[in-house]
chorismate mutase (Sphingomonas guangdongensis), 93 residues
Amino acid sequence: MADPILERYRQSIDNIDAALVFMLAERFKVTQAVGRYKADAALPPADPGREEAQIARLRALAEAAELDPEFSEKFLRFIIDEVIRHHERARGE
């Protein structure tokens, strides 16, 4: 028989994972629209200044939330790299 306390923890983790997936899906819907806009406006797929600012902002949020800022930066960098890849594809690169 499963441990009921452990099962409650796991259910919470499962709920959080589901929320993360849906939030990422929404984020990518918006960034794909940005990619189409950038392609139509002949803007570059990447914006290093914006990326730097977002990473600094996320690191500060992570620190405030007592989350490892290095982890948060790696996570955001992974997302940014994927977004840039989508933007490049929207431009036909």
User: Anything to note?
Assistant: The helical segments are 4-40, 48-64, 69-91. The chain has a mean pLDDT of 94.
